[in-house]
Write a structure and sequence with these properties.
seven-stranded antiparallel beta sheet; 2 helices; about 20% helix; alpha+beta; 7 strands; Alpha-D-Glucose-1,6-Bisphosphate, Chain A, domain 4
């Protein structure tokens, strides 16, 4: 019985450690808050979802699917600007790509919810030692459910 518990514990630890990633920390954190605005990266995964120049796609933590009817993606990028610059970038650039800002949720991370006529895009910006981790989640918009037909019985 003790051997079984030990094996289960090892399996759990391996499963938990498989999802962990350590990102490099920026050694020199200089006052970037007043730095020049970010520009759009020259190569984009989707032409209407901008990514700041200098950010690298984390391939092993990202996926994207697209066909003639829909797109679904979870893309992670890591790069050299602080989160405040990245937020300003997305506020300006997403509007230029015809995305409407729905809301922003700010806590340790910044979550920016956008939508267009067909899709929803959630951009999460997490500070990482003077740099930022950006997660872009793209999916079709959910369709409202049709209400069920109510019965014609009246209750008195």
């Amino acid at each position: 019985m003790n051997k079984t518990r030990f094996l289960v514990l090892i399996a759990c630890l391996l499963a938990l450690s498989a999802g962990c990633v350590t990102l490099p920390k920026d050694e020199s954190v200089d006052g970037e808050k007043n730095a020049a605005p970010l520009s759009v990266a020259p190569i984009l995964k989707f032409e209407d979802i901008p990514v700041p120049a200098g950010f690298k796609l984390l391939d092993k933590e990202s996926f994207a699917f697209q066909n003639d009817k829909s797109r679904v993606a979870l893309l992670k990028y890591y790069g050299g600007k602080n989160s405040e610059n990245v937020i300003m970038f997305y506020k300006e650039q997403m509007a230029a790509f015809n995305w409407s800002l729905v809301n922003i949720i700010e806590y340790e991370r910044k979550v920016m919810n956008y939508e267009n006529s067909e899709e929803s895009c959630i951009i999460t910006i997490q500070p990482q030692g003077g740099k930022s981790l950006i997660t872009v989640a793209l999916s079709p918009k959910s369709r409202p459910m049709k209400p069920e037909k109510s019965s014609s019985r009246e209750y008195k």
